[in-house]
Each structure stands twice: as C-alpha cells, then as structure tokens.
Amino acid sequence: MRRLGTSFDWGRERFTLDKIMTRATYEAFVRLFDDGIIFRSDRLVNWCHHLNTSLSNVEVEDVQLAGRTLMSVPGYPANEKFEFGVLVHFAYQIEDSDERIVVATTRIETMLGDTAIAAHPDDTRYKHLHGKFARHPFVGRHIPIITDAEFVDMEYGTGAVKVTPAHDFNDYAVGQRHNLEFINLLNEDGTYNANAGSYSGMRRFHIRRQIVSDLQAQGLYVDFGAWRSSPSGLRAIHLLVRGKVDIDQEIGKIEKKITKTTQVKDTAAKKTQTPKYIAAVPDKIKQADQAKISNYDTEIEALQNSIRAFLVLKGDE
C-alpha cells in the first residue's frame, strides 16, 4: 500500500476483529434494535437442505428448461432423477358441492401447504365461489377461496391459483395481504414435518412423485404439460430447495435507515468530493426490492449471543 503511494494515517490502522471495531459493531446493532430499526420477523429464505443453510438471492440462479427434464438433486443418490419443467393440473373439491376447481403448479409437493385458492375478482367463472371453501384431500384442511386482482391473471391458465404462503415468495405476499395461515412443511434436512400429515418424514422429491400417484387414486389429477419455468439453481450444486420459513430473523427497516443515510450523504457531498459510484450506493439500495435485501444468514444468532455478552459488560442487561 505504501509503495502505491497511499497517504493513510497508519497510526490509526485497524483490523476488522479488533476489540474497538467489534465493540462499535455491537453498539451500532444495539442502537438500531433500541430504535426499532432492527426487529424480529418471519421471512422466507432460500434454504438448501444439502448445505443446511440459507442462501442470499445472489447465490441463487435460474436454470432454464425447454420442457420436461429429469435431473439429479444434491443429497439424493446420483442415479436417482426427478422431474422438472412440468406443470401439473389437479382439482380441489368444493365443500358441500359436487363442483371442483382446477389449479396448476410446477411443484406439486407444495400443495400440502396450500392455505387458499385465489381467483380474480372480475372472473365470472368463479364469482359464485367467492367466500366458499375447498377441502384438502390429504390433510383435511379447509381452504378458503379468495380474490386478488394483483396476484391473479384471469387470462392465464385456469384463472385459479393455489396459494402456499410459506413456500413461495409471491404467495407469501398474498398471505400477508389476506392474513392467511403460513404452514411450513420442511425440516432443515429436506424431509417433511408433521404439518404434511401422512407424508411426514418423507423427502421432498419423493413426495413429488407420491402425490401425483395419490391424486390419481382420488380422481383429482387432471393432466400435465411442459412449462418454461425452472427450479432455482445454486452455482455449486445445481439445484436449491426453495421456500422454507426461517424463524426469528433480524430484518432491518431499510427505508427508514436509507433515508437517514441519504441525508448524511447529501450533507457530506457539500463538504467533500465523493466519487459518483460511492455516492449512488444509498439510492441503489433504496430502489431495491426489500425482499431481496432481507436474506440474513444464521450468523445472526452468534451475533445476538455476543451482543448479550456486550450488554452484560455494559451493565444494560
């Protein structure tokens, strides 16, 4: 650095884990928590059962499929292939009626976590079903039929959409708007938990096969077709198991803090010559989708433990 001609104040050199730096980090976290800027909340994360960790959106890639594709999945035998790129249509039976409502999904195994069926409020095909319930064939759950103009495109597919708030980011938003139940199906190892009823203990992609067979046995399976969408992929291991509720994450109120940061940036810009690429950072963050900046990893727990120790030393706990 010296050979490059940098003019740092070497007397103020610091290592990231120096005690003074660590203390400053804890102090900042505690202040943000006390101000209500950081708070506990449930959010969806990208969870990989093979690595047993959550992943940021930056670590997730989409694999584009031309149609039905058989692929191997990390954590399963290498010679075992699973079906992707297929849109499965199946029916829910309307309660107290002979009528059925058909929905479609590329991840049929998530239907065990369905807590609603959504239709467009202007779709005349389903107006008589608004406010009624469908019966879940495997877990006995009463599934309300709701309307959502923002979520449903009545010109697409059947115009009826299954809603699984705990296992899809778009469905999560619908669940929040309609105060739906969030039912997590996955254990951390990729097996299904007790919420899956008789499928509890089975592995996710084995359930994918089994549910198709069970729907056929009940006469609820309609058909399947190729679908241009794809499973998410992890750079290192091809596929990522999507959609698991990560409990008690620390989520920041980004908008509030970025507003303050922008004010500081504007004030500093008047006094210093700040490079444009640095000055633009707060604005770029502000424009980002909040869901994409809330993917915190499990080191939060370790940080919380360290902060508790810090508060004890401080005499604040």
Say what oligomer this is. Answer: single chain
CATH architecture of the largest domain: Alpha-Beta Complex
Order of helices and strands: HEEEEEEEEEEEHHEEEHHHH
Number of strands: 14
Fraction of residues in β-strands: 15-25%
* Main sheet overview: 7 strands, mixed
Spatial gap, N to C terminus: 43 Å
Averaged pLDDT, please?
78
**Low-confidence parts lasting 5 or more residues at pLDDT below 50?**
228-243, 245-255, 277-282, 284-299
Overall morphology = elongated
Determine the CATH topology of the largest domain. Answer: Isoleucyl-tRNA Synthetase, domain 2
Assign a percent range to the helix content.
25-40%
Q: CATH homologous superfamily name of the largest domain?
A: Valyl/Leucyl/Isoleucyl-tRNA synthetase, editing domain
Structural class: alpha+beta
Account of the protein in words:
The protein is of the alpha+beta class and 317 residues long. The chain folds into 2 domains: 10-35 and 253-314, no CATH class; 46-51 and 58-245, Valyl/Leucyl/Isoleucyl-tRNA synthetase, editing domain (Isoleucyl-tRNA Synthetase, domain 2, Alpha-Beta Complex). The chain is built from 7 helices and 14 strands. It has helices at 19-34, 169-178, 204-217, 254-271, 276-279, 281-287, 299-314; strands at residues 38-48, 53-55, 60-62, 69-71, 82-84, 86-94, 100-105, 116-119, 133-135, 142-147, 160-163, 221-226, 232-234, 244-252. The strands form 4 sheets. Strands 6, 7, 8, 9, 10, 11 and 12 form a 7-stranded mixed β-sheet that branches. A 3-stranded antiparallel β-sheet has the order 2-1-14. A hairpin with a 5-residue loop joins strand 6 and strand 7. Helix 1 packs across helix 7 and helix 4 (254-271) runs antiparallel to helix 6 (281-287). The longest helix is centred in the last third of the chain and has 18 residues, at 254-271. The relative contact order is 0.17. Mean pLDDT is 78; it is low at 228-243, 245-255, 277-282 and 284-299.
